[in-house]
Amino acid sequence: MNAIEIEHFSKSYKGSVAVDDISFAVPQGEFFGFLGPNGAGKTTTINCLTGITGPTSGVLKLFGHDVVDDYRAARAQVGLSAQEFNVDFWAPVGRLLWYVAGFYGIPEKKRSARIDELLTIFDLKSHAKKPFRTLSGGLKRRVMIARAMIHNPPLLILDEPTAGVDIELRHDLWKYLRRINEEGKTILLTSHYLEEVELLCNHIAIIFGGTIIAIGDKSEFIQGGHTLEQKYLQLTKNQHE
Amino acid sequence: MNNWIGLYTFIRREIERFLRVGVQTLLSPWINALLYIFIFGFVVGSRIAEIDGISYIQFVMPGLLMLNLITSSFSQTSFSLFYQRFAKHIEELLVSPLSYAEIVCGFVVGGIARGVAVSIGVYAIAILFGAARVEHIGIFALYSFGVAVVFSLIGLVVGLWSENFEQVSIFTTFVIMPFTFLGGVFNSVNMLPRTMQTVVRLNPFFYFVDGLRYSMVGLHEAPLAIGVSLMAVLTVVFGVLVWYLFKIGWKIKS
Question: Which domain, by its residues, includes B237?
Fold first, then answer.
């Protein structure tokens, strides 16, 4: 089964085309890298998949559920760690997770145990009562990922999850993401750290100017002794020309 | 609606949010009400003759209660929604499996909760001044609930429409305050010249104040059916409008 199915998806903002007729699928259990320069259409695609915005045309499905017509079922399948801190900055971390767990229908009795588990995993226990605004950038990023994981979704979308994160945490996070992927979770990752994508992902798509310019197995990108970064620069340079 | 846990959690978040800033959301309107009741009801009122057998302070009290109910339920939803748009954590709701009807319902119940909380405090102050009285509890509850729902929904429209904090407060300054004050809070409509009486009777706020006044002191100057019908029509119109605006993502989904 495909975790993500995108068919002829386009998105325009006030006449300007952000994503232009793209189609691809991400099979269940995949660790999928979604790359592209700033403004290429990565976040727009993610926003349409998760309900933050709606598509102009095309069909987007999560585990077979249409994100527009069957949006409740689709949204229950996915956890999003957004690029921006889209959080109530005044709410304490523990409370913030408590609310979101409730939105996903987790009963109060089970909620505390789940929050405790995530606070432990992301080393946030000592920060649970602190308002989000008082945390450092790295801690904020951890809270974002913990929030995305709160309902234990089968699909995790991480939009630049390691931006501004120190190297130790980045390594811890890689280890954790690898583990949950091995346990069956599908992960879609966007990142400007291409060594991170090369290390973690099995399949990769590159979006440029709103269209997919390359998609395939990681081995196809790094064959011939290339690093992913070299191949990426070559592909995007061709587009510029 | 079937995500009851989600809806309940959202309502709790809305209530906890206004309790977190209780000085601004509760204490401030209570102090304002105290000053209004003291000055207009007690000091000025002691020099004004009874209106239809009712002391001036008792005549004024329903209007002050209505003013606080309207402003607090409106402010709760308009500022909450605008702030969530401004800080982008409206996205927390948009990515969750809450339906649009549940999101609207959660905001509205938050608005009602704040309106009721403020009103309880104002009523307690009225007890201190001997101005608290409820003759018809059912009608009192109907008007309080109905008006809180209507202005919570209008607050959501303004919260969606506004582009900055100034625009959120424009409605309170230029619509709620003048229309309530001109809706018979401080005077009987019969005290006005005939042409002004006609103008006042075109003001929907007049029927809300009048209905609540009837429930509290048994005096009314217009048919109650008009006030009840207005609340019902406005609830349906703004309820459907707000649900539709959320569904199409007006100003929340770019």
Answer: 4-248
Among the partner-chain residues B10, B20, B95, the one whose CB lies closest to the CB of A52 is: B95
Report which of A180, A186, A220 is spatially closest to residue A204, judged by C-alpha positions. Answer: A220
Interface contact B201, partner A, CB < 8 A: no
Check CB contact of B6 with chain A, cutoff 8 Å: yes
ipTM here: 0.91
Interface A-B: count of C-beta contacts within 8 A: 78
Domains contained in chain B, number:
1
The predicted pLDDT at position B39 comes to 87
Q: Give Cα separations from A191 to A18, A121, A168, A194, A225 (angstroms).
A: 19, 22, 17, 7, 22
Q: Tell me, what's the pLDDT at B131?
A: 85
Q: Which long-range contacts (CB under 8 A, 24 or more apart) does A115-123 make?
A: A115/A150, A118/A146, A118/A149, A118/A150, A119/A93, A119/A94, A119/A146, A121/A146, A121/A176, A122/A146
Asked if residue A237 has pLDDT above 90, the reply is no
Task: Evaluate if residue A144 carries a pLDDT over 90.
Answer: yes
* Residues of B with Cβ-Cβ distance to A132 under 8 angstroms: none
User: A106 falls in which pLDDT band (50, 70, 90)?
Assistant: very high
- Does B65 reside within a domain? yes
User: Does residue B254 fall inside a structural domain?
Assistant: no
- On whether any CB of chain A is under 8 Å from the CB of B10, the answer is yes
Within a domain: residue B253?
no
Q: Hey, is the C-beta of B20 within 8 angstroms of any chain A C-beta? A: yes
Residue B187 within a domain: yes
Say if the Cβ atoms of A82 and B8 lie within 8 Å. Answer: no
Nearest CA in chain A to B5: A105
- Mean of pLDDT over chain B: 94
A46 — contact with chain B (CB < 8 Å)? no
Q: How far apart are CA B27 and CA A190, in angstroms?
A: 47
Residue B1, chain A, CB below 8 Å: the answer is no
CA dist., res. B56 & res. B120, Å (int): 21
Q: What is the DSSP string of A99-164?
A: HHHHHTT--HHHHHHHHHHHHHHTT-GGGTTSBGGGS-HHHHHHHHHHHHHTT--SEEEEESTTTT
Of residues A50, A53, A80, nearest to B254 (C-beta) = A53
